[in-house]
């Protein structure tokens, strides 16, 4: 039986191997079950183990700034949010519909925690997520231009199902930086979701700013054509 356990692990069926090991150790617990029932338990454990590993990988690859959870959000602070709003967002229907989420508020109001909590929740449900502070994202894009991997970087960003951009609006953007962000948003429009955290602009101000940038980009593209 030891050889069977080794073969299962070699086949990367670690969850099934662990479950079989438990069945062998607790014979009296499982002896009344049929072969198919015991096999079903092994398969269930393997599936659970794979899902857990996937969740851990997605969380690790997201590079969250904070370890946050929607279950641990503090509603005592004045954040203008309610448990029902969080519960609705935690269902991730907005991600399935390729919609975006804008989180605004003063410094220290918990915008980053909320964004990381929504991102962590998305990882648990199998979505790919990536967290960036805006300054770090722009720096990586600038470096990608220098080493020739700019378009590859844009393609990778476009494939992420939920992109979290934190600290939007802390500094004025240069024209090249605005164009970089427009490239990202244009690639993601209608195909994936983005969370934006801003402490300096109200939602309508941010949306008007994005609209002006989009119109400017469209005008420039028509002029250059």
What can you tell me about this protein's structure?
- With 225 residues, the chain is an alpha/beta fold.
- It folds into two domains: 2-55, no CATH class; 63-224, Rossmann fold, CATH 3.40.50.300.
- The chain is built from eleven helices and four strands, in the order ααααααβαβααβαβα.
- It has helices spanning 2-10, 14-25, 27-30, 35-62, 83-90, 93-96, 111-124, 134-147, 150-159, 175-188, 203-224, and strands at residues 101-104, 129-133, 162-168, 193-198.
- It has a four-stranded parallel beta sheet with strand order 1-4-3-2.
- α10 links the parallel β3 and β4.
- The protein is elongated, with a radius of gyration of 23 Å.
- 22% of the residues are buried.
List keywords for this structure.
single chain; 225 residues; alpha/beta; Rossmann fold; disordered C terminus
Query: Quick one: CATH class of the largest domain?
Result: Alpha Beta
Gyration radius from CA atoms, angstroms: 23 Å
* Proportion of residues in β-strands: 5-15%
| Average predicted local confidence, pLDDT | 86
- CATH T-level topology of the largest domain: Rossmann fold
- Low-confidence parts lasting 5 or more residues at pLDDT below 50? 203-225
> Helix-strand pattern, N to C?
HHHHHHEHEHHEHEH
CATH architecture annotation name of the largest domain? 3-Layer(aba) Sandwich
Distance between the termini: 71 Å
* DSSP helix fraction: 55-70%
Categorize the overall geometry. Answer: elongated
Q: How many separate domains make up the residues? A: 2
Topology, number of strands: 4
Number of helices: 11
- Major pleated sheet: 4 strands, parallel
CATH superfamily of the largest domain: P-loop containing nucleotide triphosphate hydrolases
Structural class from helices and strands? alpha/beta
Across the major sheet, the strand order is: 1-4-3-2
């Amino acid at each position: 039986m030891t050889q069977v356990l080794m073969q299962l692990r070699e086949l990367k069926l670690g969850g099934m191997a662990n479950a079989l090991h438990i069945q062998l150790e607790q014979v009296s617990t499982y002896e009344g079950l049929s072969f198919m029932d015991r096999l079903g338990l092994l398969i269930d454990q393997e599936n659970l183990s794979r899902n857990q590993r996937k969740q851990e990988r997605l969380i690790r690859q997201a590079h969250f700034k904070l370890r946050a959870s929607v279950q641990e959000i503090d509603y005592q602070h004045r954040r203008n949010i309610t448990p029902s709003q969080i519960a609705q967002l935690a269902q991730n229907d907005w991600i399935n519909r390729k919609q975006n989420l804008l989180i605004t508020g003063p410094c220290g109001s918990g915008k980053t925690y909320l964004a990381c909590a929504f991102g962590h929740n998305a990882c648990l449900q199998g979505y790919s997520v990536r967290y960036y502070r805006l300054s770090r994202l722009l720096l990586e894009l600038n470096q990608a231009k220098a080493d020739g991997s700019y378009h590859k970087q844009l393609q990778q960003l476009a494939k992420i199902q939920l992109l979290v951009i934190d600290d939007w609006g802390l500094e004025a953007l240069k024209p090249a930086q605005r164009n970089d962000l427009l490239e990202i948003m244009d690639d993601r429009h209608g195909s994936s979701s983005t969370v934006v955290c801003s402490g300096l602009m109200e939602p309508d101000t941010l949306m008007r700013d994005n609209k002006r940038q989009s119109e400017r980009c469209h005008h420039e593209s028509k002029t250059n054509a």
